[in-house]
Amino acid sequence: MARAVLAFCALLVTAALCVSAGGRAAGRGADAGASGVRDVPGALVRRVQASGRAEASLERVVSDPLGGGRRTLRGRIALEPPDRADLRFLATGERIAVRSDGGEWIQPELRQVLLLGPERAAAARRWWEILLARQGEQLLVRRLAAGRFLIVAAAGQGEPADSAWVWLDRAGLPSRLEIREEPGERTAYRFSNWRFMRPRGRAAFVIAPPAGYEVVRLP
Amino acid sequence: MSGVLASCAPHLARPPDLDATRRQARFFTLLAAREARGVSVEAELSLWVRSSRARGLPGAQARLLLGAPDAFRIRLESAFGTALDLAAHGDSLTAYVPGRHLGLSLGAAGDSLGLRGPGALGYRLWTAAWRPPVGAWDSVAWRDSALHVSWTEWGDSLELAVGSNGLPLALAFTPAGGSPLTVSYREWSSFEGMVLWPALLRLEEGDGDLTVTCRVHRARFARRVDPARLALSLPAEGERLTLARLKRALRGMGRL
Fold first, then answer.
1. pTM of the predicted model as reported, rounded to 2 decimal places
2. FRET pair for A145, CA 20 to 30 Å: which of A14, A181, A216, B133?
3. Which residues in chain A have their CB less than 8 angstroms from residue B78's CB?
4. Thinking of the domain A28-217, which architecture would CATH place it in?
């Protein structure tokens, strides 16, 4: 039984990691309910489509039940339509780059790079694609107030429904995205200093594993 | 001149001290120091699971909270979210996978998992707070230079190997009627300059095919346990994993 317990722990860890790295299936096919997604980040979509690339400073604010209070991680986000997102956090050196054909997640503390297949990359992109007004999932958009929206992704097979809350600043650019990741708690992403520039192309959204890093392809 | 001559003389390796009484004394001194500092510990970890039957498993980062004498909470988390939150206190165990909104709560994990007191086991695992009873030291054994002490707890067999510096080298734990688990303490570190603390642990299942390696990067010590931080409450919404489903999962894991 001890073997089973250790195996249980090992599987729980592995399964949970896979979920963390974007275990939800993406692209539930129909566009039903997707109308209104374009209203959410309208200014961002217009400007990023005109320039080709958007960058912003990012703060991830999350509740910290172990340490008490909340923790803030600072980083950067880059978006290029139609399907590219890149997030990096300065303190940990973690970075995730995702595209429609997959992605990579680098974890310096583990000296590890996770390779994400198209499905996992799509799941990891799902909320960022809202910022680019991509329409691939069953999304219900509800305007809560001026510049504030609730977006609900319908439950899929064996997957719970998920909600995101989006705030726009006076310029109509996203200033805050909240996702319910923890019981009764929301994880907040705050955006500032939006900048628009020429696109760098797919190569800028591919992470080459550094020498000495273990490369793990997620199942 | 004598110093120069001494430096040129052949260096003789000092033989390990094979006096059981002195080693026992060193062991208890260091154990007492760990127990004193280990009332409440917060640590950052890296974990790697390896098995020849499941290759290519990713490593994971985690934060760990320990509360003496029988509680721990571990969260697998990264800058991009939490993968797993698991807490054990005494004989109860609670786990939650936020990405799936999936929870598991076992009030008597000893009955269901066959592993008595997962909270105390976890606490002792990460603090190396294995305390053989006094009588166990009457019949110790030497293997190489390690002192081995064996005892039983509630039908489970434990064998602790103590190194010449008085620190645990390994603990073999064999549940009644089960196969052994071994934890090896490969490295120790003096976090916060306080006390020697396990820094690299390796758990190994009986035949060594399944291993979990745990690197402790940082550890912080507090004087008091905060029960609220150790407790994991499952949300009212979300799915609860039943014991039957857990057993099916465990049977399926025989393939691991």
1. 0.79
2. A181
3. 20, 92, 94, 107
4. Clam (2.50)
